[in-house]
Specification:
binds magnesium ion, eight-stranded mixed β-sheet, binds phosphoenolpyruvate, alpha/beta, eight-stranded parallel beta barrel, 578 residues, 16 strands, 47% helix, single chain
């Protein structure tokens, strides 16, 4: 194919350059085309169906074994549920009958799924209604075998593969962690969408919000991801490849050079020591957290335990998960954020309203969900409390909008403690409890909130989205999502000052904390703790070690006088050249 440099512009989600071949992450589909077969061929068709079902069963069993080994039995339950559907005698009989009537097997599957889907839709119970998707998943798998399509999965990836997809969901990212992906590009997403966070935590260059890249690529096509500039190049010329190869080499040597900072303290030239924590979503990330020299886990997004499973985690599941993290991170702190399901983190648990709302980002999510379903919340709190015997675990409530939510959450925490005492289970009686400041109403009353908690952490991903009324995953308005808006700067100053006046720790765990472009600003605002994807720590540490707190403070005083983001950004640029 003639090389021609087709350049697509998107949003730079994770820095770095990747050169490779397109791997399209696509879905299998059902076949709705009706094709008749003569009666004397029916038995042959049934034999073909039988083989496809057998192959699917083998795939599912393998899948079960792998998930079980990798993530534990609870994650493997999904594959188990799919095996049950595949073996369902009623569904199986309907498909066989449809083939006997003279239809090809692919169409018989489609017709039966369509019929059963209607019955599922009529079910009142949301959980059972949702199982329709499992039936469709299984039907697609059998169809793929009938068609002889061996669907490519992330496990088939070669080392230079760049994943292209419409969207990469949080549950896709579970397998992404294990696979050899060297970059990715998606139609949807913004800088702080979950896909982007995962890319940064895995140190994979990524461009998101490309609108229609998934329609423009072919499997195996040469592609370059420029995560520094938010550009994707399809069919690059030799010259472009050479230029990017040079850039890639610079990237590798820069990363190497940053390794020297790993064991050095994050201290400004005038002696202010900053705590640099890591954001994680699963215990497997601890190795990378320690490798990059973090002083703790500033945000454990615990809701990831709820994704990719069909049943709720038990108190023991929580306990075992957190104790692992706490032990590995000793003596550093681990801040466990209680579940923030909803928004782009939708669990497949058939959990009541979650994910079924018109506007889930502003719906029944996080602490609102937990207060509505206290038993689910309590199971997690008890798990956290039991793991706190290690002594370094803290609890943090997400999406707090006012004081009463903290009080209500604390009442459930007290009940959890009481039940543990009654059962003779030990925990840290002095466990520290904090809140995220990520809803503008909470930000405005940080002075009141600060009196109710032991620490605060600013969640800029949501705080900016709600303050600016800019959906954080909407590529069309991504240019408006800017931490350097004067309103954001003022709000951050107010929040940090309130925390200091109340004498409590104030950190930040939103993506802004890990963006080297804002490190000096946050230092000047007086932030004490920064938490970010582990891979970003060395770069942020390098900046902290090269400036004085005093200079950073003076810069912020100037920035606070600016009335537009353009003015703030140009002042900021000047500072970097001093
Ligand atoms: C935030 O909103 O800044 C945050 C850290 O939480 P999440 O990105 O998980 O919503
Ligand atoms: Mg948030």
């Amino acid at each position: 194919m003639k090389q021609s440099n087709v350049i697509l512009n998107g949003i730079a989600a994770s820095s770095g350059v990747a050169i490779g071949k397109v791997f399209i992450l696509e879905e299998d589909d059902l076949v709705s085309v009706k094709k008749d077969i003569p009666q004397d061929k029916v038995n042959k068709e049934l034999a073909r169906l039988k083989i496809a079902v057998k192959q699917t069963k083998a795939d599912l069993e393998q899948n079960y074994a792998e998930l079980n080994k990798m993530l534990g039995e609870n994650y493997a339950k999904i594959a188990d549920a799919h095996i049950l559907i595949l073996n369902d005698p009623m569904i199986g009989k309907e498909v066989i009958d449809c083939v006997r009537e003279g239809n090809i097997a692919e169409y018989a599957i489609y017709a039966v799924v369509k019929k059963f889907s209607k019955s599922f839709d009529a079910i009142q119970d949301e959980y059972f209604r949702e199982r329709k998707n499992d039936l469709i998943d299984v039907a697609k798998k059998v169809t793929a075998h009938l068609l002889g399509k061996t669907k490519k999965t992330l496990a088939d990836l070669k080392e230079d593969s760049i994943v292209v997809a419409k969207n990469i969901t949080p549950s896709d990212t579970v397998s992404m962690r294990e696979a050899m992906v060297c970059g990715f590009a998606t139609d949807f997403g913004g800088k702080t969408s979950h896909t982007a966070l995962v890319a940064r935590s895995l140190e994979i260059p990524a461009v998101v919000g490309l609108k229609n890249i998934s329609y423009q690529v072919k499997q195996g096509m040469p592609i370059i991801i420029d995560g520094n500039n938010g550009i994707v190049i399809l069919n690059p010329t030799e010259e472009t490849i050479d230029n990017y190869k040079r850039e890639y080499e610079i990237q590798v040597s820069n990363r190497k050079a940053l390794e020297q900072f790993k064991d050095l303290p994050a201290v400004t030239t005038d002696g202010k020591e900053i705590k640099l924590g890591a954001n994680i979503e699963s215990p497997e990330e601890i190795r990378s957290v320690l490798k990059h020299g973090a002083n703790g886990v500033g945000l454990y997004r615990s809701e990831f335990m709820y994704l990719s499973r069909t049943s709720l985690p038990t108190e023991d599941d929580h306990y075992l998960n957190y104790i692992q993290v706490a032990k590995k991170m000793m003596p550093y702190d681990v801040i466990i954020r209680t579940i923030d399901l909803g928004g782009d983190k939708i669990a497949k648990l058939g959990l009541m309203e979650v994910g079924k709302e018109a506007n889930p980002f502003m719906g029944l999510r996080a602490i609102r969900f937990c207060l509505k379903y206290p038993e689910i919340f309590k199971a997690q709190l008890k798990g956290i409390l039991r793991a706190s015997v290690c002594g370094n675990i803290r609890i943090m409530y997400p999406m707090i909008s006012g004081v009463s939510e903290i009080k209500a959450a604390n009442r459930i925490l007290e009940q959890a403690k009481e039940e543990l005492r009654r059962d003779g289970k030990t925990f840290n009686e002095d466990i520290k409890v904090g809140a995220m400041i990520e809803v503008p109403s909470a930000a405005v009353i940080t002075d009141f909130i600060a009196r109710e908690v032991d620490f605060l952490s600013i969640g800029t991903n949501d705080l900016i989205q709600y303050t600016m009324a800019v959906d954080r995953v909407n590529a069309n308005i991504a240019h408006l999502y800017n931490p350097m808006h004067p309103a954001i700067l003022r709000l951050l100053k107010w929040i940090i000052d309130c925390a200091h006046q109340a004498g409590i720790d104030i950190g930040m765990c939103g993506e802004m904390a890990g963006d080297p472009a804002y490190t000096v600003v946050l230092l000047g605002l007086g932030l004490d703790e920064f938490s970010m994807s582990a891979a970003q720590i060395p770069q942020v540490k390098k900046i902290i070690r090269s400036v004085s707190k005093e200079n950073a403070k003076n810069l912020v005083a100037k920035l606070l006088e600016c009335n537009s983001m353009q003015e703030i950004e140009s002042e900021l640029k000047k500072f970097r050249y001093i």
